[in-house]
Design brief:
- With 508 residues, the chain is mostly helical.
- It has 18 helices and no strands.
- It has helices spanning 37-44, 65-73, 78-87, 102-113, 116-119, 121-128, 130-162, 169-178, 188-222, 230-244, 254-275, 294-305, 308-316, 330-353, 370-403, 409-433, 437-464, 475-507.
- The chain starts with 36 loop residues before the first helix and ends with a helix.
């Protein structure tokens, strides 16, 4: 799954390692985040309104980390804290310059989940088998959607607890530990760094996939006329990719994002027409895959569904955030559409091309057909243009740290330019080392996507609701343990199988 929507709340402001710790409290004491509203206002000054823009426009913070630390470290009268916590509605304290409607949020959610992952689903079905892939993808979609709801609910609980208007993914991880059991609070900064690191790895992995996807599709078109090694195409793409990613303002990339989205829709529509033409019988493909290839299916499927990084920014920017969750909410609506699309492409793509299906379904389209050649070029251009939005997230994580080591504005800008050049070149080198598209997609999914989508949410929920309770018979705790075990198994076996396939490809 591609995260084409930049994470609006991902900018990080370093927090002092030696921030004041909380006053000593018992394990089960209700969390006291503000002793008195007037005292808090006097010590912190007027509350800063949360300002944000819709995704694809700019990256902003709706809060500051020092305010989070101050809220987490406060203590006082328990009854007053309970009243404050119960009456605080985070969405009422967000001042949005350009809030998004429900339909706009749905479009962003779909765009944030649909990219190269959907084109790799037939390859995932090949590793799982037709029927295991069919039901497994639907189940995987349900689990990932539930984990997104878990993250949103934890964010709401922590926002009320800390009286913050909004939190991003890494802040939710930090605050859950910071207000959780006493023995875990020392690891709050570590939790933030782990989530941020996996976000960085995920986006860098996406960039590698994009690099290789574009090169392979262009090569497939050009092979009809003149055959050149794929590494040459990667090298040719390097300089234009560096130049395009020197653009630092997302405002100028918005038209690029729109063009990429339109090209993606057109390419998918034409690809569907090829897949549905002259479908063979279901008995021509295997119904169930082997245990050895199932981990590869997991990696590719979780890569496709890993849109959890865009969930909180989208919800934080909604005009009516209460419509995001719920049975008929924006999140469920969007993820049902995504799951149906993924399942359809995987099912019919594998049924059409069988064991010959490749890492991207576009590579299976008839090579001599002019329309199929146009589809490859269309999707290649769309993904090439989408690279900039994927790249914006990891560079935005690292760039503030690099710029802080220089004094003058000129030196800071030069360092930022060198950083962008180095990171783009790094993704180029990774794509060069792993020329198998299916393997790199499965590896990125197993390593980073499973960590963010299946492992982090249950851990965060367990810690967040430690003081609140886990429901009757501790059902929430058991449910989270099952999801956590599933995610850990996928992480370990998916990574192992993907690395084994990559090494096997390089020795042949």
């Amino acid at each position: 799954m591609e995260d084409l929507t930049p994470l609006t709340n991902l900018q990080q402001i370093p927090i002092a390692e030696g921030a004041a710790r909380k006053k000593k409290m018992t394990e089960r004491q209700p969390l006291l985040l503000q002793s008195d509203a007037s005292d808090y206002e006097a010590s912190r000054g007027p509350a800063r309104p949360a300002r944000s823009s819709p995704p694809d426009n700019t990256l902003v913070n709706v809060h500051s980390e020092d305010s989070i630390a101050a809220s987490a470290s406060g203590s006082g009268d328990e009854d007053q804290a309970a009243v404050d916590k119960g009456s605080y509605n985070p969405s009422l304290h967000r001042t949005l310059e350009h809030p998004t409607s429900n339909s706009e949020t749905l479009v962003h959610l779909l765009k944030g989940n649909i990219g190269t992952g959907i084109l790799a689903m037939p390859d995932a079905f090949k590793n799982a088998g037709l029927y295991v892939g069919l039901f497994g993808t639907l189940i995987m979609g349900a689990i990932c959607t539930h984990c997104m709801h878990m993250l949103v609910n934890c964010s709401h609980e922590l926002c009320r607890r800390l009286q913050q208007p909004a939190l991003d993914f890494s802040d939710v991880a930090y605050c859950s530990f910071e207000t959780g059991p006493l023995g875990l609070r020392r690891y709050s900064l570590l939790a933030r760094r782990i989530v941020t690191t996996f976000l960085f790895i995920t986006q860098i992995g996406f960039c590698c996939v994009y690099f290789l996807f574009v090169a392979l599709n262009i090569k497939d078109v050009m092979d009809h006329y003149y055959k050149i090694n794929v590494h040459i195409y990667l090298l040719i793409m390097l300089m234009p990719m560096i130049v395009l990613n020197l653009v630092r303002n997302l405002k100028y990339l918005t038209p690029v994002s729109l063009i990429a989205a339109l090209l993606t829709v057109a390419g998918l529509a034409i690809t569907f027409s090829y897949m549905l033409h002259d479908l063979p019988d279901v008995h021509t493909v295997k119904p169930i895959g082997t245990w050895a290839t199932l981990p590869l299916y997991f990696g590719t499927a979780i890569y496709a569904f890993e849109g959890i990084g865009v969930v909180l920014p989208l919800e934080n920017n909604m005009r009516t955030p209460d419509d995001f969750g719920g049975t008929r909410g924006v999140l469920n609506t969007g993820m049902v559409i995504v799951a149906c699309l993924y399942t359809s492409v995987g099912f019919f793509g594998y049924l059409k091309y069988g064991e010959d299906v490749k890492g991207s379904i576009t590579l299976n389209l008839p090579q001599g057909d002019a329309l199929s050649q146009l589809v490859r070029l269309t999707m290649a251009v769309a993904i090439f243009l989408s690279y900039t939005l994927q790249f914006y997230v990891p560079v935005n994580i690292v760039e503030p740290f690099v710029r802080s080591h220089f004094d003058t504005t000129r030196a800071k800008d030069l360092a930022a330019t060198i950083l962008r050049t180095v990171l783009v070149t790094f993704t180029f080198l990774l794509a060069t080392c792993i020329p198998n598209l299916g393997s790199i997609i499965s590896l990125v999914g197993a390593v980073s996507s499973s960590a963010l989508a299946l492992i982090a949410p249950p851990i965060i929920e367990i810690i967040t609701y430690y003081h609140v309770g886990y429901g009757r018979y501790n059902w929430m705790l058991w449910k989270d343990f099952l999801i956590l075990i599933f995610g850990l198994c996928g992480f370990v076996f998916g990574t192992w199988a993907s690395l084994a396939q990559i090494l096997n490809d390089r020795t042949h």
